[in-house]
Amino acid sequence: MEAKNKDRREIEFFAKFVLCSNNEKNPITIPKEEIRFWVRKIKPITKDNTSLRDQMEKEIPHFLYFLHHRELSTQKVSRMWFNPADLETPALYKIKKYNTNKIEIELATYCSEVMECLNQDQFICCVKDLWEVIRESGLKADINHVRNILRDSWGLQSNRNSDYTFYRSIIDLVMVMYNCQEGEAIRKLETYSFSFHWNTFVTPEIPNNKKQSIAILQVKPLTHPALMDYLNERCINTEIAKKFCSEVHYSVKGKSYYAIGFKNNSAGYELRNKYFKGCNSKDISYLKSGNSSCLVFEGFIDYLSYLSLKNNPDPVSDIMVLNSVSNLHKAVPYLKSYQTIHAVLDNDLSGKKALEELRNLVTQSDIVDQSFFYRNHKDLNEFLCEKSTRKQQKLIPVKKKKEGLGYEQP
User: Fold this and answer.
1) Is the dihedral of CA 71, 73, 78, 80 positive or negative?
2) What is this structure's pTM?
3) Rounded to the nearest 5 degrees, what angle is found at the Cα of 390, between the Cα atoms of 380 and 393?
4) E-assigned strands of 129-179?
5) CA within 20 to 30 Å of 186's CA: 193, 275, 311, 350, which one?
6) Are 299 and 320 in contact (CB under 8 A)?
7) What is the full DSSP assignment across 208-269?
8) Cross-strand partners of 296
9) Which residues make beta-bridge pairs with 270?
10) CA distances, 277 to each of 2, 127, 132, 383 (Å)
11) What is the pLDDT of residues 375-410, one digit of tens each?
12) Nearest to 237, CA basis, from 20, 72, 70, 384
Protein backbone atom coordinates (compact mmCIF):
# COMPACT_ATOMS: atom_id res chain seq x y z
CA MET A 1 0.00 0.00 0.00
CA GLU A 2 1.36 3.39 -0.93
CA ALA A 3 -0.23 6.67 0.20
CA LYS A 4 0.73 10.15 -0.86
CA ASN A 5 3.82 11.49 0.94
CA LYS A 6 4.17 8.24 2.89
CA ASP A 7 6.47 5.26 2.56
CA ARG A 8 5.10 2.22 0.82
CA ARG A 9 4.24 -0.75 3.03
CA GLU A 10 2.93 -4.21 2.34
CA ILE A 11 -0.24 -5.65 3.85
CA GLU A 12 -1.89 -9.03 3.55
CA PHE A 13 -4.58 -9.03 0.94
CA PHE A 14 -7.07 -11.61 -0.25
CA ALA A 15 -9.91 -10.94 -2.63
CA LYS A 16 -11.82 -12.41 -5.50
CA PHE A 17 -12.49 -10.23 -8.51
CA VAL A 18 -15.52 -10.51 -10.76
CA LEU A 19 -14.74 -9.22 -14.24
CA CYS A 20 -17.43 -8.72 -16.85
CA SER A 21 -16.70 -8.31 -20.55
CA ASN A 22 -18.35 -8.67 -23.94
CA ASN A 23 -15.01 -9.76 -25.39
CA GLU A 24 -15.18 -13.57 -25.42
CA LYS A 25 -11.74 -14.16 -26.91
CA ASN A 26 -9.36 -11.85 -25.09
CA PRO A 27 -10.86 -10.02 -22.09
CA ILE A 28 -7.68 -10.74 -20.09
CA THR A 29 -4.50 -12.76 -20.59
CA ILE A 30 -4.83 -16.29 -19.18
CA PRO A 31 -1.83 -18.58 -19.81
CA LYS A 32 -2.54 -22.20 -20.63
CA GLU A 33 -1.12 -23.47 -17.32
CA GLU A 34 -3.14 -20.98 -15.18
CA ILE A 35 -5.67 -22.57 -12.78
CA ARG A 36 -7.02 -19.57 -10.83
CA PHE A 37 -9.76 -18.49 -13.23
CA TRP A 38 -13.34 -19.60 -13.62
CA VAL A 39 -14.97 -18.26 -16.75
CA ARG A 40 -18.62 -18.60 -17.67
CA LYS A 41 -20.55 -17.38 -20.66
CA ILE A 42 -23.81 -15.87 -19.40
CA LYS A 43 -26.81 -15.99 -21.66
CA PRO A 44 -27.94 -12.50 -22.68
CA ILE A 45 -31.25 -11.09 -21.52
CA THR A 46 -33.73 -11.68 -24.32
CA LYS A 47 -36.19 -8.91 -23.44
CA ASP A 48 -36.16 -5.62 -21.57
CA ASN A 49 -37.16 -5.66 -17.91
CA THR A 50 -37.52 -2.17 -16.48
CA SER A 51 -38.00 -3.59 -12.96
CA LEU A 52 -34.90 -5.81 -13.01
CA ARG A 53 -32.95 -3.80 -10.40
CA ASP A 54 -35.85 -3.77 -7.91
CA GLN A 55 -36.37 -7.50 -8.37
CA MET A 56 -32.68 -8.22 -7.80
CA GLU A 57 -32.66 -6.14 -4.61
CA LYS A 58 -35.59 -8.16 -3.28
CA GLU A 59 -33.63 -11.36 -4.00
CA ILE A 60 -30.65 -10.33 -1.82
CA PRO A 61 -31.97 -11.70 1.52
CA HIS A 62 -32.93 -14.98 -0.10
CA PHE A 63 -29.53 -15.26 -1.79
CA LEU A 64 -27.67 -14.62 1.49
CA TYR A 65 -29.78 -17.28 3.22
CA PHE A 66 -28.89 -19.71 0.43
CA LEU A 67 -25.15 -19.00 0.83
CA HIS A 68 -25.26 -19.64 4.59
CA HIS A 69 -27.25 -22.86 4.44
CA ARG A 70 -26.23 -24.55 1.21
CA GLU A 71 -24.31 -27.83 1.14
CA LEU A 72 -21.00 -27.82 -0.72
CA SER A 73 -21.05 -30.00 -3.81
CA THR A 74 -17.26 -30.50 -3.93
CA GLN A 75 -14.58 -31.45 -1.45
CA LYS A 76 -11.42 -29.42 -0.91
CA VAL A 77 -8.68 -30.94 -3.10
CA SER A 78 -6.17 -28.06 -3.40
CA ARG A 79 -5.26 -24.71 -1.90
CA MET A 80 -7.66 -23.22 -4.44
CA TRP A 81 -10.27 -25.68 -3.06
CA PHE A 82 -11.41 -26.89 -6.49
CA ASN A 83 -9.82 -29.46 -8.70
CA PRO A 84 -8.52 -27.48 -11.72
CA ALA A 85 -10.46 -29.81 -14.01
CA ASP A 86 -13.70 -28.63 -12.36
CA LEU A 87 -12.99 -25.07 -13.50
CA GLU A 88 -12.47 -25.95 -17.15
CA THR A 89 -15.27 -24.47 -19.24
CA PRO A 90 -15.66 -23.82 -22.99
CA ALA A 91 -15.40 -20.09 -22.27
CA LEU A 92 -12.10 -20.52 -20.42
CA TYR A 93 -10.75 -22.79 -23.16
CA LYS A 94 -11.55 -20.15 -25.79
CA ILE A 95 -9.57 -17.46 -23.91
CA LYS A 96 -6.59 -19.75 -23.30
CA LYS A 97 -6.61 -20.80 -26.95
CA TYR A 98 -6.56 -17.18 -28.10
CA ASN A 99 -3.68 -16.40 -25.73
CA THR A 100 -1.38 -19.03 -27.22
CA ASN A 101 1.42 -17.86 -29.49
CA LYS A 102 0.61 -16.80 -33.04
CA ILE A 103 2.39 -19.73 -34.64
CA GLU A 104 0.36 -22.24 -32.64
CA ILE A 105 -2.85 -20.36 -33.45
CA GLU A 106 -1.98 -20.43 -37.17
CA LEU A 107 -1.27 -24.18 -37.02
CA ALA A 108 -4.49 -24.91 -35.13
CA THR A 109 -6.55 -22.79 -37.53
CA TYR A 110 -5.01 -24.49 -40.55
CA CYS A 111 -5.58 -28.00 -39.18
CA SER A 112 -9.17 -27.17 -38.25
CA GLU A 113 -9.89 -25.71 -41.71
CA VAL A 114 -8.36 -28.67 -43.52
CA MET A 115 -10.43 -31.17 -41.50
CA GLU A 116 -13.55 -29.11 -42.11
CA CYS A 117 -12.70 -28.79 -45.81
CA LEU A 118 -12.23 -32.54 -46.20
CA ASN A 119 -15.06 -33.41 -43.83
CA GLN A 120 -12.68 -35.54 -41.78
CA ASP A 121 -11.86 -35.69 -38.07
CA GLN A 122 -8.21 -36.48 -38.77
CA PHE A 123 -5.56 -35.95 -41.44
CA ILE A 124 -1.95 -36.89 -42.01
CA CYS A 125 0.90 -34.59 -42.99
CA CYS A 126 4.57 -34.03 -42.28
CA VAL A 127 6.28 -31.29 -40.27
CA LYS A 128 7.73 -29.76 -43.42
CA ASP A 129 4.26 -29.09 -44.86
CA LEU A 130 3.14 -27.36 -41.66
CA TRP A 131 6.32 -25.31 -41.62
CA GLU A 132 5.52 -24.15 -45.16
CA VAL A 133 2.05 -23.07 -43.96
CA ILE A 134 3.67 -20.92 -41.25
CA ARG A 135 6.16 -19.46 -43.72
CA GLU A 136 3.44 -18.60 -46.22
CA SER A 137 1.43 -16.86 -43.50
CA GLY A 138 4.27 -14.39 -42.97
CA LEU A 139 5.32 -15.68 -39.54
CA LYS A 140 8.93 -16.52 -38.82
CA ALA A 141 9.74 -19.89 -37.28
CA ASP A 142 12.15 -22.70 -37.90
CA ILE A 143 11.04 -26.27 -38.41
CA ASN A 144 12.16 -27.28 -34.90
CA HIS A 145 9.76 -24.71 -33.40
CA VAL A 146 6.88 -26.33 -35.28
CA ARG A 147 8.03 -29.78 -34.19
CA ASN A 148 8.17 -28.65 -30.54
CA ILE A 149 4.58 -27.35 -30.72
CA LEU A 150 3.38 -30.69 -32.09
CA ARG A 151 5.26 -32.70 -29.49
CA ASP A 152 5.18 -30.53 -26.34
CA SER A 153 2.03 -28.42 -26.67
CA TRP A 154 -0.24 -30.82 -28.57
CA GLY A 155 1.15 -34.07 -27.21
CA LEU A 156 1.58 -35.66 -30.66
CA GLN A 157 4.23 -38.24 -31.43
CA SER A 158 5.87 -38.99 -34.75
CA ASN A 159 4.56 -42.17 -36.33
CA ARG A 160 7.39 -42.19 -38.84
CA ASN A 161 10.94 -40.98 -38.30
CA SER A 162 13.19 -39.47 -40.95
CA ASP A 163 16.14 -41.36 -39.47
CA TYR A 164 17.23 -44.12 -41.83
CA THR A 165 17.77 -46.80 -39.15
CA PHE A 166 14.22 -46.43 -37.88
CA TYR A 167 12.88 -47.65 -41.23
CA ARG A 168 15.25 -50.55 -41.72
CA SER A 169 12.74 -53.08 -40.36
CA ILE A 170 9.91 -52.03 -42.71
CA ILE A 171 11.72 -50.72 -45.81
CA ASP A 172 11.50 -54.07 -47.56
CA LEU A 173 7.73 -54.22 -46.90
CA VAL A 174 7.17 -50.77 -48.42
CA MET A 175 9.35 -51.63 -51.43
CA VAL A 176 7.18 -54.70 -52.11
CA MET A 177 3.88 -52.83 -51.56
CA TYR A 178 4.79 -49.96 -53.88
CA ASN A 179 7.15 -51.83 -56.24
CA CYS A 180 9.77 -49.10 -55.74
CA GLN A 181 13.45 -48.68 -54.99
CA GLU A 182 14.89 -48.29 -51.49
CA GLY A 183 15.32 -44.50 -51.73
CA GLU A 184 11.71 -43.97 -52.78
CA ALA A 185 10.48 -46.26 -49.97
CA ILE A 186 12.31 -44.09 -47.43
CA ARG A 187 10.73 -40.91 -48.83
CA LYS A 188 7.27 -42.49 -48.71
CA LEU A 189 7.77 -43.23 -45.04
CA GLU A 190 9.05 -39.69 -44.41
CA THR A 191 5.97 -38.22 -46.07
CA TYR A 192 3.54 -39.55 -43.47
CA SER A 193 4.98 -38.10 -40.27
CA PHE A 194 2.18 -36.88 -37.99
CA SER A 195 -1.44 -37.83 -37.59
CA PHE A 196 -3.70 -35.00 -36.40
CA HIS A 197 -6.88 -35.88 -34.59
CA TRP A 198 -8.64 -33.22 -32.56
CA ASN A 199 -7.92 -34.13 -28.91
CA THR A 200 -7.12 -37.77 -29.81
CA PHE A 201 -3.97 -39.31 -31.22
CA VAL A 202 -4.52 -41.86 -33.97
CA THR A 203 -1.91 -44.07 -35.58
CA PRO A 204 -2.25 -43.84 -39.36
CA GLU A 205 -1.93 -46.73 -41.74
CA ILE A 206 0.01 -46.66 -44.98
CA PRO A 207 -2.60 -45.66 -47.56
CA ASN A 208 -3.76 -48.19 -50.11
CA ASN A 209 -4.80 -47.62 -53.70
CA LYS A 210 -8.40 -46.83 -52.98
CA LYS A 211 -10.74 -44.79 -55.14
CA GLN A 212 -9.86 -41.11 -55.39
CA SER A 213 -12.08 -38.93 -53.20
CA ILE A 214 -11.51 -35.69 -55.16
CA ALA A 215 -13.92 -35.21 -58.07
CA ILE A 216 -13.17 -32.53 -60.68
CA LEU A 217 -16.27 -30.45 -61.40
CA GLN A 218 -15.00 -27.72 -63.72
CA VAL A 219 -11.74 -26.52 -65.28
CA LYS A 220 -11.57 -22.95 -66.56
CA PRO A 221 -9.07 -20.09 -67.02
CA LEU A 222 -7.43 -18.85 -63.83
CA THR A 223 -9.26 -15.72 -62.67
CA HIS A 224 -10.54 -16.17 -59.10
CA PRO A 225 -9.38 -13.22 -56.90
CA ALA A 226 -8.52 -15.47 -53.93
CA LEU A 227 -6.25 -17.64 -56.10
CA MET A 228 -4.64 -14.58 -57.66
CA ASP A 229 -3.98 -13.21 -54.16
CA TYR A 230 -2.34 -16.50 -53.21
CA LEU A 231 -0.04 -16.29 -56.24
CA ASN A 232 0.85 -12.72 -55.34
CA GLU A 233 1.69 -13.85 -51.80
CA ARG A 234 4.09 -16.38 -53.32
CA CYS A 235 5.47 -13.62 -55.61
CA ILE A 236 4.44 -15.55 -58.74
CA ASN A 237 3.87 -13.65 -61.98
CA THR A 238 0.11 -14.10 -62.44
CA GLU A 239 0.23 -13.73 -66.23
CA ILE A 240 2.76 -16.57 -66.43
CA ALA A 241 0.66 -18.65 -64.04
CA LYS A 242 -2.41 -18.17 -66.25
CA LYS A 243 -0.53 -19.70 -69.17
CA PHE A 244 0.41 -22.92 -67.37
CA CYS A 245 -2.31 -23.31 -64.74
CA SER A 246 -6.09 -23.49 -64.61
CA GLU A 247 -8.78 -22.72 -62.09
CA VAL A 248 -10.10 -26.09 -60.98
CA HIS A 249 -13.38 -26.52 -59.12
CA TYR A 250 -13.65 -29.85 -57.35
CA SER A 251 -15.67 -31.62 -54.69
CA VAL A 252 -14.80 -33.74 -51.68
CA LYS A 253 -17.64 -35.76 -50.13
CA GLY A 254 -20.25 -33.50 -51.68
CA LYS A 255 -18.63 -30.19 -50.71
CA SER A 256 -17.32 -27.88 -53.47
CA TYR A 257 -13.96 -26.10 -53.46
CA TYR A 258 -11.58 -24.42 -55.90
CA ALA A 259 -7.81 -24.32 -56.36
CA ILE A 260 -5.00 -23.61 -58.79
CA GLY A 261 -4.61 -26.66 -61.00
CA PHE A 262 -1.44 -27.82 -62.75
CA LYS A 263 -2.03 -30.66 -65.20
CA ASN A 264 0.05 -33.85 -65.00
CA ASN A 265 0.74 -36.72 -67.38
CA SER A 266 -2.26 -38.70 -66.11
CA ALA A 267 -4.62 -35.89 -67.17
CA GLY A 268 -5.10 -35.18 -63.49
CA TYR A 269 -4.35 -31.97 -61.60
CA GLU A 270 -2.03 -30.94 -58.84
CA LEU A 271 -4.25 -28.70 -56.70
CA ARG A 272 -3.05 -25.84 -54.57
CA ASN A 273 -4.61 -22.95 -52.67
CA LYS A 274 -3.75 -21.19 -49.44
CA TYR A 275 -5.23 -23.97 -47.30
CA PHE A 276 -4.97 -27.10 -49.41
CA LYS A 277 -2.30 -29.06 -51.23
CA GLY A 278 -3.30 -32.24 -53.02
CA CYS A 279 -4.15 -33.90 -56.32
CA ASN A 280 -6.79 -36.11 -57.91
CA SER A 281 -4.15 -38.39 -59.48
CA LYS A 282 -0.44 -38.33 -58.66
CA ASP A 283 1.96 -38.18 -61.60
CA ILE A 284 4.77 -36.18 -63.17
CA SER A 285 4.20 -33.21 -65.50
CA TYR A 286 6.46 -33.42 -68.56
CA LEU A 287 6.63 -30.42 -70.90
CA LYS A 288 8.68 -31.38 -73.96
CA SER A 289 9.75 -28.92 -76.63
CA GLY A 290 12.67 -30.75 -78.28
CA ASN A 291 15.64 -29.30 -76.39
CA SER A 292 18.85 -31.11 -75.43
CA SER A 293 18.58 -30.03 -71.79
CA CYS A 294 15.88 -30.42 -69.18
CA LEU A 295 15.00 -28.52 -65.98
CA VAL A 296 13.75 -30.71 -63.12
CA PHE A 297 11.54 -29.19 -60.38
CA GLU A 298 9.96 -30.77 -57.29
CA GLY A 299 6.67 -28.88 -57.63
CA PHE A 300 4.91 -26.52 -59.99
CA ILE A 301 5.25 -23.56 -57.61
CA ASP A 302 9.03 -23.85 -58.02
CA TYR A 303 8.55 -24.04 -61.79
CA LEU A 304 6.42 -20.89 -61.79
CA SER A 305 9.00 -19.25 -59.50
CA TYR A 306 11.73 -19.99 -62.03
CA LEU A 307 9.69 -18.48 -64.86
CA SER A 308 8.87 -15.44 -62.71
CA LEU A 309 12.55 -14.92 -61.88
CA LYS A 310 13.44 -15.11 -65.57
CA ASN A 311 10.31 -13.11 -66.49
CA ASN A 312 10.04 -15.44 -69.46
CA PRO A 313 7.17 -17.91 -70.04
CA ASP A 314 9.17 -19.75 -72.75
CA PRO A 315 12.28 -21.43 -71.28
CA VAL A 316 14.97 -22.79 -73.60
CA SER A 317 14.92 -26.19 -71.89
CA ASP A 318 12.36 -28.94 -71.57
CA ILE A 319 10.56 -29.12 -68.23
CA MET A 320 10.05 -32.00 -65.82
CA VAL A 321 7.94 -31.26 -62.72
CA LEU A 322 8.00 -34.25 -60.36
CA ASN A 323 5.04 -33.05 -58.25
CA SER A 324 6.69 -35.11 -55.49
CA VAL A 325 10.19 -36.53 -55.15
CA SER A 326 8.53 -39.95 -54.84
CA ASN A 327 7.71 -39.64 -58.58
CA LEU A 328 11.38 -39.53 -59.58
CA HIS A 329 11.34 -43.12 -60.88
CA LYS A 330 8.54 -42.13 -63.30
CA ALA A 331 10.68 -39.31 -64.70
CA VAL A 332 13.87 -41.33 -65.19
CA PRO A 333 12.90 -42.92 -68.58
CA TYR A 334 12.28 -39.43 -70.02
CA LEU A 335 15.40 -37.87 -68.47
CA LYS A 336 17.79 -40.48 -69.86
CA SER A 337 17.55 -38.91 -73.32
CA TYR A 338 19.03 -35.53 -72.28
CA GLN A 339 22.65 -34.44 -72.46
CA THR A 340 22.26 -31.99 -69.56
CA ILE A 341 19.82 -32.04 -66.66
CA HIS A 342 19.46 -28.99 -64.40
CA ALA A 343 18.17 -30.09 -60.99
CA VAL A 344 16.20 -27.30 -59.29
CA LEU A 345 15.34 -29.22 -56.12
CA ASP A 346 14.76 -28.18 -52.52
CA ASN A 347 17.61 -27.55 -50.08
CA ASP A 348 16.45 -30.18 -47.62
CA LEU A 349 17.16 -33.82 -46.91
CA SER A 350 14.59 -35.19 -49.37
CA GLY A 351 15.84 -32.85 -52.11
CA LYS A 352 19.46 -33.91 -51.57
CA LYS A 353 18.48 -37.59 -51.56
CA ALA A 354 16.53 -37.11 -54.80
CA LEU A 355 19.54 -35.43 -56.42
CA GLU A 356 21.80 -38.30 -55.35
CA GLU A 357 19.34 -40.89 -56.66
CA LEU A 358 18.98 -38.97 -59.93
CA ARG A 359 22.75 -39.09 -60.43
CA ASN A 360 22.78 -42.83 -59.73
CA LEU A 361 19.91 -43.60 -62.11
CA VAL A 362 20.83 -41.25 -64.99
CA THR A 363 24.57 -41.77 -65.29
CA GLN A 364 24.91 -40.84 -68.96
CA SER A 365 23.72 -37.23 -68.49
CA ASP A 366 25.53 -34.23 -67.07
CA ILE A 367 23.49 -33.34 -63.97
CA VAL A 368 23.91 -29.78 -62.70
CA ASP A 369 22.79 -28.93 -59.16
CA GLN A 370 21.16 -25.50 -59.44
CA SER A 371 20.33 -25.29 -55.71
CA PHE A 372 23.71 -23.60 -55.22
CA PHE A 373 22.17 -20.33 -56.45
CA TYR A 374 19.57 -20.36 -53.64
CA ARG A 375 21.71 -22.25 -51.10
CA ASN A 376 20.63 -20.00 -48.19
CA HIS A 377 16.92 -20.68 -48.82
CA LYS A 378 14.65 -23.68 -48.45
CA ASP A 379 13.61 -23.68 -52.07
CA LEU A 380 13.43 -21.51 -55.17
CA ASN A 381 10.14 -19.88 -54.19
CA GLU A 382 11.54 -18.73 -50.85
CA PHE A 383 14.47 -17.21 -52.75
CA LEU A 384 12.03 -15.46 -55.10
CA CYS A 385 9.97 -14.07 -52.22
CA GLU A 386 12.99 -12.65 -50.42
CA LYS A 387 14.36 -11.15 -53.63
CA SER A 388 10.98 -9.53 -54.38
CA THR A 389 10.82 -8.12 -50.83
CA ARG A 390 14.29 -6.57 -51.14
CA LYS A 391 13.36 -5.09 -54.49
CA GLN A 392 10.22 -3.48 -53.05
CA GLN A 393 12.17 -2.06 -50.12
CA LYS A 394 14.60 -0.39 -52.50
CA LEU A 395 11.69 1.30 -54.27
CA ILE A 396 10.44 2.92 -51.03
CA PRO A 397 11.71 6.53 -50.91
CA VAL A 398 13.80 7.36 -47.87
CA LYS A 399 13.61 10.87 -46.42
CA LYS A 400 16.97 12.27 -45.40
CA LYS A 401 17.24 13.68 -41.90
CA LYS A 402 17.98 17.36 -41.61
CA GLU A 403 21.34 18.29 -40.16
CA GLY A 404 19.78 20.83 -37.75
CA LEU A 405 21.89 23.91 -37.01
CA GLY A 406 25.00 22.61 -38.69
CA TYR A 407 26.38 20.59 -35.78
CA GLU A 408 27.85 17.22 -36.70
CA GLN A 409 25.70 14.20 -35.98
CA PRO A 410 27.26 12.04 -33.25
Assistant:
1) negative
2) 0.50
3) 150
4) none
5) 275
6) no
7) --PPP-EEEEEEE-S--HHHHHHHHHTT--HHHHHHH-EEEEEEETTEEEEEEEEE-TTS-E
8) 320, 343
9) 262, 279
10) 60, 14, 11, 21
11) 888 899 999 998 888 776 655 555 544 444 343 443
12) 384
- Which residues, at least 6 apart from 263, have a Cβ–Cβ distance to it below 8 Å? 246, 269, 270, 285
Neighbouring C-beta atoms of residue 259, cutoff 10 Å: 27
Q: Cβ(141)–Cβ(105) under 8 Å?
A: no
Any idea what the Cα angle at residue 336 is, between residues 330 and 339, rounded to 5°? 140
Q: What is the pLDDT of residues 333-345, one digit of tens each?
A: 999 999 999 999 9
Please give the Cα distance from 15 to 4 (Å, whole number): 24
* Contact status, residue 102 vs residue 139, Cβ threshold 8 Å: yes
Task: Measure the CA–CA gap between 193 and 118, rounded to whole angstroms.
Answer: 19
Phi first, then psi, for residue 79 (nearest 5°) are -65, -20
Single-letter amino acid code for the residue at 264? N
**Residue 273 CB neighbour total at 10 angstroms:** 17
Q: Phi, psi (5° rounding) for residue 352?
A: -70, -40
In this structure, which amino acid lies at residue 286?
Y
